Amino acid sequence: MQTLENGTIWLPEFFDRKAQENLVEIIRKTVAVAPLYTPKMPKTGKPMSVRITNCGELGWVTDKENGYRYQSTHPVTGKQWPKIPDILKTLWEELSDYPAPAEACLINFYDEHAKMGMHQDRDESNLNAPVISVSLGDACLFRIGGTTRGGKTTSFKLQSGDVVILGGPARMAFHGVDKIYPNTSTLLKKTGRINLTLRRVT
Ligand code: SIN
Ligand code: MN
Questions:
Q1: Which of 174, 197, 201 to mutate to test the pocket of ligand 1 (most atoms within 8 A of CB)?
Q2: What residues make up the domain containing 45?
């Protein structure tokens, strides 16, 4: 375990290979009922490079008209999001140090060209609970800084099975994904990276 300067907790290889395979299998089943889709940026309608879906009572979505928000249904299928799998509920119970369960799990899929610009996770009405993130598949270059845009940042490689906790002073830290390192993992059938983030929303 490593605690970074800004309070971010990094747990390299938290999940072993067997547990990672199990997680991928579960995510495949989730994606089969709640398909990945391309979200659009607020106002501009510009497509994000990641594809997303969710599980949980609430899911994070964005589109041109209504922007970033949480809602209980998939914007393409109109159906409720599938339930958060037990293994992720347990992860939240073990690591969140928060007295209520996770309500949302955002599933991001990065192909080899996808990235995510620096941002804060601030669409939750509850900012006291941490955000817990799981990386699966190809490695990425993850960047994190302080609570003001444009400040000093540190970068490190997140590998398959790593868990990151953005809690306490790091809850509002700016963070992003600069690049994916294709073919650095054999976990997924194709190149790419899956990132799961567990959140409390209300
Ligand atoms: C996110 O901030 O939603 C994703 C972070 C990551 O992919 O590691
Ligand atoms: Mn984020």
A1: 197
A2: 2-199
185 close to ligand 1 (CB < 6 Angstrom): no
State how many domains the chain has: 1
3-state helix, strand, coil in the chain (%, to 5): 15, 35, 50
**CATH number reported for the structural domain that contains residue 97 in this entry:** 2.60.120.590
Mutation test residue for ligand 1: of 10, 121, 133, the one with most atoms within 8 Å of CB: 133
Atom in ligand 1 nearest the alpha carbon of residue 121: 2
Residue 156 pLDDT level (bands cut at 50, 70, 90): very high
Q: With contact defined as beta carbons under 8 Å apart, do 9 and 1 qualify?
A: yes
CA distance 121 to 133: 12
pTM over 0.85: yes
pLDDT interval class at 84 (50, 70, 90): very high
